[in-house]
Amino acid sequence: MTEIDTSVPHSARIWNYWLGGKDNYPVDEAAGDAYTAVFPGIVTIARSSRAFLGRSIRYLVEEAGVRQFLDVGTGLPTVDNTHEVAQRFAPESKIVYVDNDPLVLAHARALLTSTPEGETAYEDLTLYEPEKILEAASRTLDLTRPTALILSGILGHVTDYDLARDLVRRLVAGLPSGSHLCVNDGSRGTDPDYEQAQDAYNETGAVPYLLRPIDKIEAFFEGLELVDPGVVSVPLWRPDGDSAPAPIGQHGGVGRKA
After folding, report:
1. Which of 122, 176, 185, 235 is the most exposed place for a label (fewest CB within 10 A)?
2. How far is CA 12 from CA 99, 140, 219, 222, in A?
3. N-term to C-term CA, the chain
4. Strand 232-233 and strand 250-256: pairing?
5. Is 160 left (phi over 0), alpha (psi -120 to 50) or beta?
6. What is the DSSP letter of 203?
7. What pairs with residue 188 in β-bridges?
8. Measured distance CA(85)–CA(228) in Å, rounded
């Protein structure tokens, strides 16, 4: 089993810290605090991304009728994980989580809870193995039936944009008509302070996470029918209540495969 290196900050554990989770180490808290000292808004971005995920899954279950979810790059369990949201509204939902982080693997049991009617599984694979992901997912999911592919905050880690597009295409190609793609990622063009903080973080030698222009995030949905309101700053995607949330440097959307 891969050793968990607790001497170097790790992006999934830092994100977990910003979300209020407990699965992190002092080195991650220090890195997270250093980032928030430069850009306090990162906590809002992390939590807004999580809230978008919850709203989009609820849409997929209640309005699109999806009962199968493939969540690639799931990260560490916190609150309102994909299976918790989906099974809250449709207990029979089936979810496959994919990640290759040893700490996530160590916490897989927390992810593997499920309603009696549904099913939850975990596969130890990377985004760079789309065909293996689909093969592994088919052990739990019926990939002849509509499935939602969740890519939340992961595509920015693929520094080669053409490769990122190709990986999305290959995963979507393995899903049938009526399936959906849900993406949200850090974006450029909305918050210069966020861009400056993230660019500085990437220069520290940590695993980089690239913010992309909105049109490049939209292009991940090429060939799919975008669900209204399209690719927007995540607080603006079907917000709850009557509030008018402010846009942030995180964009996302949901698209349907015809």
Report:
1. 176
2. 11, 25, 25, 28
3. 41
4. antiparallel
5. beta
6. T
7. 213
8. 21
Q: Say if CB 180 and CB 66 are below 8 A apart.
A: yes
- Identity of the amino acid at 142: D
Token digits for 122?
């975990």
| Sign, CA torsion 45/49/55/56 | positive
Rounded CA separation 186/195 (Å): 9
Helix axes 11-18, 42-62, angle to 10 degrees: 90
CA 112/CA 209 separation, integer angstroms? 28
Asked if residue 57 lies in contact with residue 84, where contact means CB atoms within 8 angstroms, the answer is no
3-state secondary structure of 182: strand
CB-CB contact of 138 with 60 (8 Å): no
CA distances from 171 to 16, 49, 128, 168 (A): 26, 22, 10, 5
Q: What is the mean pLDDT of the chain?
A: 93
pLDDT at residue 1 tops 60: no
pLDDT tens digit sequence for 49-93 = 999 999 999 999 999 999 999 999 988 878 789 999 999 999 999
Task: Please classify residue 18 by burial: count the beta carbons closer than 10 Å to its beta carbon, then call 0-12 exposed, 13-18 middle and 19+ buried.
Answer: buried
Does the predicted TM-score (pTM) go above 0.85? Answer: yes
- 173 phi and psi angles, rounded to 5 deg: -60, -25
Residue type, 240: D
At 146, give phi and psi (nearest 5°). Answer: -50, 135
Tally of helices (H runs) and strands (E runs) in the chain: 10, 9
Structure tokens at 230: 């399209």
Do 71 and 99 form a contact (C-beta atoms < 8 A)? no
